[in-house]
Structures are given as structure tokens and as C-alpha cells.
Amino acid sequence: MRWSEAELRQAHGALSLSPGASPCPDDEILQGFLLGELDDEARGRLADHVEDCSRCASFLQEMGALADWARRAEAAEEPNATAPFVDSTVVPLAAGRRREAREDPPAVVSASRPALSTGNWRRWGSLAAALVVGSVGLAWWLGQVSVPSEPDLLRGRNGSRFEEQIPADGASLAGMPTVFDWPDQAGTEGYLLEVYGPGGDLLWQFSELAASEAQVPPELLASASRGVYSWTVEVEGPVQRRELGPYTFRIEPR
């Protein structure tokens, strides 16, 4: 389905940024934009609007946070047959601790848009997940737009992009990787790596890492089961922490 220029002009005229500015699109038009359903002329006009409109840019960044939630929710649907494990060098954690796999979806509360209703978050979650994976152009726009109210909302994609992490995001592997590796971060005081199993349980944690890599303990390599896993890296800074990821990989024994 393609949206006409006339439909775009009618969308949310009351939310114009200033006299003569292009109106903010409604949710349906924005979905068409994200999914590439607009014709070239309409997409170009809307792209210009997104670059100039901090409200719509903030909304799209909130879609990135929703995509992170959607990935964790998908991972939680897989059965988990792996016992929790915490590396001996880190602070002990309670067995079976769950991350956010069963959390409620994040609220989308941009200044120009109401929070998503219960009936809409699944639709937006799927859309956002597809967007983050497949829309290179929109990822570029998001990287160019500064939203000072939520500087770290689009986690792992705000200010830097990571295409060199090991295992690669979305990779399909025959077994548990022997090492986790990610790009060095400037000004860091250390890293904390957390790996989660198919059910969303924390499997193990490596803290106080000076280098941007961690070796997987041998006892865990043979215990990994089929399913989708996720991992995150907390970057310790002089002022605050920030998080890279979550990244996912699937184990498919051959």
C-alpha cells in the first residue's frame, strides 16, 4: 500500500512545528514510512520532516527502545534448559534471576504523541524490531538527530554503531561461542558482560573487565542448548554507565 501526497498533507495539521512547517505524520503514515510503503516523492518530503522535527525523531528513537524489548520478549519464548552460571570472579547472583524478558513494553511518550495503548504496542514492537534490523537509511537519520532528553534511549546505537562484535548480532551458530568481543570504547573504566539464555535467565556475568572481550568458561560450552540467546555490555565511565546491546544469536546444533 502506498500513501499519496494528499494523505500526507492531511496528517496532523494541528501539530505543525511553526507556520508553514510540514505537519507531523499520524501513526499510520509513519508506519508506511518505516516499512518503505511511501512513493519516492512522499518519502523524501517525510524524510526532510524527520530530520527537522525533534518530536518525530524522539518518537523514532523510542521505537528503537521498543525494538530492544521486542527482541528480549522473543528470546523469552524459547524453552530454557541451561542452568544459570556466574563466573567465579564476579559478585554472586541468585539463580534464575530474570532480566527483562517478561517486562512490560516501554512507554512511548514523545511530546507530540500519546503513549501507546495496550492494543498497539505489539504492532509497534514488531515494526520497530524490523526497522532496527533492516532500515539503513532511517538508522542514519537517527544517528544524526540529537535528543537531549533521552541521550541513551536507543541503546548501543546512540553515538556509535557496532558491526564488529563477536558473535555478530543475529548470528546462527552451531554451539556456544568461545569468546565475546566488542569494539573498544574511548574513556572507559571497565566493562561488565551479561549473557542471557533462551528463557531470559541470566546465565553468566563477567565484571571488572579491562579489555573489550571475555572468554567463555569451558564448562558452559558443552551445556548450551538450542535457542535464542542475548548479551549486553555495560561500559563503565567516569560519570555514568551506558549499555551496548542487547545483541542476539541463535544456537542451532548441526
Features:
single chain, 254 residues, alpha+beta, Immunoglobulin-like, 5-stranded mixed beta sheet, two-stranded antiparallel ribbon
Describe this structure in words.
The protein has 254 residues and is α+β, with helices and mostly antiparallel strands. The chain has one domain: Immunoglobulin-like (Sandwich), CATH 2.60.40.1220. The protein has 7 helices and 7 strands. The chain has helices spanning 5-10, 27-34, 40-52, 54-76, 121-134, 136-144, 218-221; strands at residues 171-173, 179-181, 190-196, 202-209, 213-215, 227-236, 241-251. The strands form 2 sheets. It has a 5-stranded mixed β-sheet with strand order 1-7-6-3-4, covered by helices on one side. A two-stranded antiparallel sheet has the order 2-5. The chain starts with a helix and ends with a strand. The model is unreliable at 11-20, 80-102, 108-119 and 132-163 (pLDDT under 50).
Q: Say what oligomer this is.
A: single chain
Compute the average pLDDT: 64
The string of secondary-structure elements, in order, is HHHHHHEEEEEHEE
Largest sheet: 5 strands, mixed
Number of domains: 1
Q: How large, in whole angstroms, is the Cα Rg? A: 20 Å
Strand order of the largest sheet: 1-7-6-3-4
Helix content: 25-40%
Q: What is the strand tally? A: 7
Please report which band the strand proportion falls in: under 5%, 5-15%, 15-25%, 25-35%, 35-45% or over 45%: 15-25%
CATH architecture name: Sandwich
Count of runs of 4 or more consecutive helical residues: 7
Overall 3D geometry?
globular
